[in-house]
Design a protein that fits this description.
The chain has 89 residues and is mostly beta strands. The protein contains one helix and four strands. A four-stranded antiparallel beta sheet has the order 1-2-3-4.
Length: 89
Amino acid sequence: MAYRPQVVSTEIVSKNQSNDIFQVIAQLEDRNSCRLTFNGDLETGTPKATHISRMLKEPCPICRKDYLCNCFTRYIEPISAQVLQQLKK
């Protein structure tokens, strides 16, 4: 079964206007949360996710580890697209 992350809510936790870098904490439908770092693209100016890390409140839904893993890096594109869509609302 493939993992399909669904973003429920988002919150901007830090923003640097001069570098166009900001961090967002996203709450997922499966009670997990993750922190995404966005960087502004120099050519287009649109934000692009550069890093994602799972907050260690729940075990990883992919590998079931209860410690730091890099499983969410495979899902950075769908999660970041949902986060940007939530932030536009």
